[in-house]
Amino acid sequence: MHVSRERARRLVVFVHGFRGHSISTWEQFPQSGRVGPWWQESDMLFVGYKSTRDNITSVADRLRRKLPDFYPIPFPPAMNVKGVAPRDDVSTPYEELILVGHSLGGLVIRCALVDAAQHWVNETPGTALPILLSAQTRLFSPASAGFRPAGFLALAEALGWLRGAEIRLRMSSAYTDLQPGSSTLVGTKERTEELCRTSQVPALRARILWANPDDVVMAEWYSTDAFRDSEDGQSHLTVCKPDDNYPRPWQFVETGR
């Protein structure tokens, strides 16, 4: 976690993509405190998982199961570092939850949300909305429709491990799950669109920022998504990495645009 020194009004949860990392994928975001007051009032949680080993469903389940430890009450161990509190107010509940995903992380978030929504709809009428479904959803080039025909190899080349990449990739469950038309991709899309039609769950209506051009994932979206735009000149790997010359990722997470 990256903990604000001011009273935090929201928790922003980041989920990295294939071959990404909980720190390196998002390392520019802790600098966002100088961008504006919205970020100064935000705690950040960076979710880690083994993208070449864990399957999408298990990571989505873990996200649903563990999130209540961090939201809406701030995570106690993070509020006490060697006996020192990072700020005066460490116990007031957060007011907002923002879910941010890149590439495969976007699909993980979609799976977690639709599973939570399905369980909620199937429960006894009148039960409270699960906390995950109170979120606002921001996705950078999500792998919602899978990888392009050469998408895995394009990603491997960008990451500098092209030699033997095909063999390594086939060892990953994500290789199968992210093939266009896979049961994971089709089922997540169909269930999300159906639940959006039959229930009021705003978290299912993602807001998306695509890289342009993106030679790794297929730039397709769900008919129920709330917003989509693209950023010219940004690659699949850089679209989610803000800096002083490219502040759009900070703005997108904050405003959804």
What does the model show?
The protein is of the alpha/beta class. Strand 3 (96-102), helix 3 and strand 4 (136-140) form a beta-alpha-beta unit. Helices cover 30% and strands 14% of the residues. The protein starts with 9 loop residues before the first strand and ends with a helix. Helix 2 (56-66) crosses helix 3 and helix 3 (104-122) packs across helix 7 (183-198). It is built from eight helices and six strands.
Name the descriptors.
257 residues; alpha/beta; Rossmann fold; 8 helices
User: What letter string, H or E per element, gives the SSE order?
Assistant: EHEHEHEHHHHEEH
Question: What is the straight-line distance between the termini?
Answer: 25 Å
Strand order of the largest sheet: 2-1-3-4-5-6
The CATH superfamily turns out to be Alpha/Beta hydrolase fold, catalytic domain
Whole-number tally of structural domains: 1
Helix content: 25-40%
Total number of strands: 6
Radius of gyration: 18 Å
Second CATH tier, the architecture: 3-Layer(aba) Sandwich
What is the fold named in CATH at topology level?
A: Rossmann fold
CATH level-1 class: Alpha Beta
Structure classification: alpha/beta
Q: What proportion strand?
A: 5-15%
Q: How does the overall form come out from the CA principal axes?
A: globular
Q: Which consecutive residue ranges, at least 5 long each, have pLDDT under 50?
A: none
Query: How many H/I helices?
Result: 8
Give average pLDDT, whole number: 90
How many strands, what sense, and barrel or not for the largest sheet?
A: 6 strands, parallel
